[in-house]
Design a protein that fits this description.
The chain is of the alpha+beta class and 392 residues long. 36% of the residues lie in helices and 22% in strands. It contains 11 helices and 23 strands. The protein has helices at residues 16-19, 106-114, 116-124, 136-139, 149-190, 230-234, 250-253, 301-310, 312-317, 329-334, 342-382; strands spanning 5-7, 12-15, 20-23, 26-27, 35-37, 53-54, 62-65, 70-73, 82-83, 89-91, 95-100, 143-146, 197-200, 206-208, 221-228, 240-241, 246-248, 266-270, 274-280, 285-286, 290-294, 336-339, 389-391. A hairpin with an 8-residue loop joins β8 and β9 (82-83). The protein is globular and about 70 Å long. The N and C termini lie close together (10 Å). Mean pLDDT is 94; it is low at 1-7.
């Protein structure tokens, strides 16, 4: 009978070029149609896609990638844009297309390039003035302690199991929101009553705006009050916003006329671009890039959120501006809406509230799993935490 013992693989010092290969397989405009990934299709810091484009919309040459290749955003203004697509396609030339060598496991390489230590080094050594880009020639020669492939696979399996759970919850949320949107269209668009009153958004909701306290006054910043800009939504593809990148003090809050907006406020970006949308799950203040919406006139946040989702093209078509599109609060409030009867709206809320609450609970769990993954990842990559391997 064999005896199972715990063994650890040997870690050795390698250059990045020993474990990862840079691929530059060009795709030219006019070649076959393929899915397209730009930096805008990768959620910042989330290690996942938020969408997929098409080569039909591409006007310049790109790089090809194959299913399982690692894509690494090398443009310095972007933070931790790393994904491993499960399909063949083309990508922006502002990404590296990477694959593993015989000394490495491709899933490990994905997490290796998602490790913040490597990202920080790649960005600190980037070159260029307006849009600095990471330098492969430099980075590929840097030295790192790396385990043998068997332990690489074990590390990747632990981290992948967390990402698989995260992906499942995201897919559940997408299904739940799509179901709520389908019900909204059925109840209030396809089966709209002939006698329903036509009104304006101003009649069913309250709009608030925001501002930015002077960034030159340290007294206003780094407090404990959430203060949001549309960038928070650009980094957050979820329905609910649980936190903000920046915080202000009570003194900073006093400079914002709309004050502290309550939990449940709907946030709609009003410019650059118009259309980011989320429900605040914390009290917060906002900057001038938002239209903040309160459901204080008898129409629930569920109804309003789904109306906004279903009518986003209509909203954007009413934006204007020479430098970038913007929709003013005045124009937004004047937009037309068909107002369903109160009894029907209440019945609808009772049906969809479970969807919204489940999405909220899933999003909380996603954040817990992401924190766990992002805590473990650097510990695995440094060898601070080791994965035990079974051997004969």
């Amino acid at each position: 009978m064999s005896k199972v013992v715990v063994v650890m693989s040997e870690w050795r010092e390698y250059r990045i070029s020993d474990v990862a290969t840079l691929i530059k397989d060009s795709w030219k405009v006019g070649d076959e149609q393929l899915p397209y990934l730009g930096l805008e299709h990768i959620d910042e810091a989330k290690l996942r896609l938020n969408g997929i484009g098409s080569s039909d919309d591409v006007a310049s040459n790109k790089y090809r990638f194959s299913s399982g290749d690692v894509l690494f955003g090398k443009l310095r203004p972007y933070f931790r844009k790393v994904v491993k697509p499960s399909f063949n396609g083309i990508c922006s030339t502002d990404m590296w297309v990477l694959n593993a060598t015989e000394k490495s496991d491709i899933d490990f390489i994905f997490y290796f390039f998602a490790n913040q230590e490597l990202i920080d080094l790649s960005y600190s050594s980037s070159s260029g003035t307006r849009m600095p880009r990471a330098d492969w020639k430099f980075l590929s020669q840097t030295l790192w302690d790396i385990p043998q492939p068997e332990e690489q696979k074990a590390i990747a399996e632990v981290l992948s199991s967390l990402d698989d759970k995260i992906d499942l919850l995201h897919r559940q949320n997408k299904t739940l929101e799509e179901l709520a949107q389908t019900l909204f269209r059925q109840w209030f668009i396809e089966e709209a009553g002939d006698g329903w009153e036509v009104g304006t958004l101003d009649e069913i909701l309250t709009v608030k705006g925001g501002t930015t306290p002077s960034t030159k006054n340290d007294e206003y910043w780094n407090g404990n009050i959430c203060w949001s800009t549309p960038k928070d939504l650009s980094l957050n593809s979820d329905m609910y916003l649980f936190d903000t990148a920046r915080k202000i003090t009570e003194s900073g809050l006093a400079k914002i006329g709309s004050g502290l907006l309550p939990k449940g406020t709907i946030l709609l970006s009003s410019r650059a671009p118009v259309g980011y949308l989320a429900i605040a799950e914390v009290p917060l203040a906002i900057n001038q890039g938002y239209i903040a919406i309160l459901d204080d006139k008898g129409f629930s946040k569920y109804f309003i959120y789904l109306w906004l989702k279903s009518n986003m093209e209509y909203i954007i078509s009413n934006a204007n501006g020479s430098t970038f599109l913007e929709i003013s609060k005045t124009v937004f409030k004047s937009l037309d809406i068909i107002k369903p009867l109160e009894e029907l709206r209440k019945k609808f809320d009772e049906v969809v509230i479970e969807n919204f609450e489940k999405i909220k609970a899933n999003t909380k769990q996603i954040k817990t799993l992401e924190n766990m993954r992002d805590t473990l990842l650097p510990k695995f990559m440094s060898g601070e935490v080791r994965v035990k391997l079974n051997g004969e």
